[in-house]
């Protein structure tokens, strides 16, 4: 059985070497769909009886690991020196300096890596 939970968050970024408007500072609304697969638990008298996993557990982990970190943050690649320096000069801004260029694909890969590891630890 597969179940899916969706979370959304807003973030700013730029793609430093992009040859179009994505080279400028801008923002996006991201939607992440988390799909887990497993057996339905027939545990009578338990909160998650009849579920693969409680949606609230999926959401809570995704929010803690992804949304709390990136929602309304500016995601900057550590190699984008001028932008990193500019962002870090204002201590009130929420900034996450990344080891990779914050393309949608790289962000999706990072989200997968982080969540897979955490869900595997919890539900193996």
Backbone CA Rg: 18 Å
Strand content: 25-35%
- What's the end-to-end separation, in Å? 16 Å
How many beta-strand runs? 4
Side by side, the strands of the main sheet go: 2-1-3-4
Quote the average pLDDT: 93
Going by helix content, strand content and strand pairing, the class is alpha/beta
Largest sheet: 4 strands, mixed
Flag low-confidence runs: none
Notes on the protein architecture:
This protein has 124 residues and is an alpha/beta fold. Helix content is 35%, strand content 27%. The protein has three helices and four strands; from the N terminus they run E-E-H-E-H-E-H. The protein has a four-stranded mixed β-sheet. Helix 1 crosses helix 3. The longest helix has 20 residues, at 104-123. It is elongated, with a radius of gyration of 18 Å.
In short:
This protein has 124 residues and is α/β, with parallel strands linked by helices. Helices cover 35% and strands 27% of the residues.
List keywords for this structure.
single chain; 124 residues; 4-stranded mixed beta sheet; alpha/beta
Q: What's the SSE blueprint?
A:
Elements: E1 2-13, E2 26-37, H1 55-70, E3 73-77, H2 81-88, E4 95-98, H3 104-123
Parallel strand pairs: 1-3, 3-4
Antiparallel strand pairs: 1-2
Helix pairs in contact: 1-3
